[in-house]
Amino acid sequence: MLRRLLLAACAALLPATLPGGANAQGTIRIGMTAADIPLTHGQPDQGFEGNRFTGIPLYDSLTAWDLSSADRPSTLIPGLAERWESDPADRTRWIFHLRRGVTFHDGSPFNADAVVWNVRKVLDRDAPHYDARQVGLTASRMPTLRRAEKIDDYTVALFTSEPDSLLPINLTNLFMASPAHWERLRAQHPTAEATWNAFAANPSGTGPFRLVRLVPRERAEMVRNESYWGTRARAERIVLLPIPDANARTAALLSNQVDWIEAPAPDALPQIRSRGFVITHNVQPHVWPWQPCFVGDSPLRDVRVRRALNLAIDREQIRALLGGLMVPAVGTVQPGHPWWGNPSFQIRTDLAEARRLLAEAGYGPQRPLNLRVQISASGSGQMQPLPMNELIQQQLRQVGVHVEFDVVEWNTLFTNWRNGCQHPSARGAHAINVSFAAMDPFFAMVRFWDSKMAAPVSNNWGMFSDPRFDALVAAARNAFDPAERDAALARLHAAGVDEALFIWIAHDVAPRAMSRRIQGYVQPQSWFVDLRLPYIQ
Amino acid sequence: MFYYLIRRVLYAIPIALAVGFVCFMLVQIAPGDPINAIVPPDAPADVVEQVKRDYGLDQPLAVQFGIWLMKVVQGDLGRSLATGRPVWADLSTAIANTLTLAAFASLIGFSAGVVLGGLAGTFRGSVIDRLAVSTAVAGVSVPHYWLGMVLVVIFSVQLNLLPAMGAGPGGSADWAWDWEHFQHLILPAVTLSVIPMGIVTRTVRGIVAEIMNQEFVVALRAKGLTGWGVFQHVVKNAAPNVLAVMGLQLGYLMGGSILVETVFSWPGTGLLLNSAIFQRDLPVLQGTILVLAMFFVALNLIVDLLQTALDPRIKRF
After folding, report:
1. Backbone phi, then psi, for A131, in 5-degree steps?
2. Which of A139, A243, A408 sits opposite B265 (nearest CB)?
3. 3-state secondary structure of A254
4. pTM (predicted TM-score)
């Protein structure tokens, strides 16, 4: 009755125009979680959501991720480089053979000069187009790349600071912007910084979409690149809308203002489904762990304690808490992944074994184990940190482990993560709960388990140091055959699981909600999506 | 009056300095690091140090503040740490959007407040009075964001009558005063208007009731004036005080509401501040707060001048 009354009242007051009316055929409107349009100058900010929506669609990199399948882990494939090899005489030198006939959106050719120019934009402070803004977003993802050198028009040499077989994977983060377009804009702008801002407003890459409209903080519109070198996109136009609030995103979808939203509000999932929308998800190379502290008086120095904690957690309960939207983590990568290996320690729920291990380590009713964990109340990639951590706290209590949380703001937790567990900012924490992306071996394992990566150099917050792991990391970095490299990484991962170097809890599944009119969409096991595949009926 | 005007403008300078300084220090003492706006959390230490040098964030705080201040004096609010865009470019668009929203919300809130308050004050103790007061109390008490979400659920999600978010089908850059755009304004403006409506209702009610009890009103009636004639005199006497309250409320509305603008993804100063706070985007925060503070000062000055014009008994020297 109330609804009819409201309907009648509003119908009388308002004209019949409805929001979100018919759009041009082939336009997909996407509600992102970001508060702003990720940077469009070629090195997006806003984390991997930026790469997903304004990196990969507008630009290409020398190497790329295969995003065509939902059934297997996303692997490395050729991008703007057709093939590459490490120089056997000098393992710090890589040769990349470039794809011919590729042009930027402005019509200029892609060649070796363009690659050298794009490397210099972030690594050569003397380059006229050097952009400090892009350094932070790029150099950190290519930690060993030092410079590039043209061999001929379609061959380029890249140099690393040390032999590093992971470089081709790192290079998925270096997007190729058009030097010719930048130079044209430079003539109209007083500084390189102003030119990059102009470039962001009117970018030129080689990607499957071209940016045609950018309203900062409100919307970006991309149209299909009809002269794309690879398989062309099926959708004619993509509209990106930043909607940081989960409830606002959900309402925008339910009122047909958008066709697709990232991370719908968890409480609204039943309603979204009941209204005929589709919820998609798939395991992501994302890890939601507790990262232990391995120094000082931390009880987590003892592998038996770390194993006990891994065994005392019931991940299925956590999955139920999240409405099924997670995958229990039994390692940094999932079984079946090329880097899984064969760890002898099987992570599962086994309270009896957990109690036995704790007793062996000297903990029990007479001497309970007290842990302090630094966590955040929210944050990108953190899923639902408070209820998840509280459930783990309850579960660990069953085996006599008492957990106290030090809840800090998300930005603060990030800063503390760089400082290490011996820094005052850790405030005596024995573990820290920061989720991370695990697409790239450096970010999945090396930065945590290589002693050279101990804070503040990188994210080895726990100050883990073990010559055996340093050797395993070095072996992986020196394995230049892809199969050998994967095997070396598998050995590293298996050793990490056996030593229980994390308390692994969950992998996110990147839930998205979308209209049934969207067809052809594939959700790969990746942080990224191939926007060439979906179209709208 | 001229000297008064000059003096008030001069007063604004220390206010601006204080606002800039307090804002700068608050961001510095808050946990977290502005560098997180520029580099990802997993950036190695050498990259972090290099970027800090490039952005001058390795300089002592006093130097950083001095550099910012010198630029502001020259009319340059700096560049966003997060996007590299000039702060003024984003801020000017956001201010225009917030002004649009604030103007419409004020229109709704002030009109409703004056009508309800006027009726309640005139018919004090009656059912009309009780209804008006209840509405005013509800308006002041209901949380903004909750009301916004409820309106979205009813009018956008369930009835599909009004848009749930945004500033028009093509964004605020294409704003036009047609129905296609105007419908985006309705829900956020109604949400934003309830607090000023409540406050203005209570203010007008009190003032009208007080004036109605004054002897000159009795004298007016004794001279044979009724209805409209008395009303004109009451309005003229009530206007200065009501205007002062409206000025303050307009100032608050122009500051933008972080919660309302976030709920409706309305690209105004509130949403800009929200993202700047989460990103520790210091130049955007400082620039936005400084400009909003100056708005408030200017608005108060305008209200003072208007009050003087309406009531010559109020002298400004």
Report:
1. -130, 105
2. A243
3. helix
4. 0.85
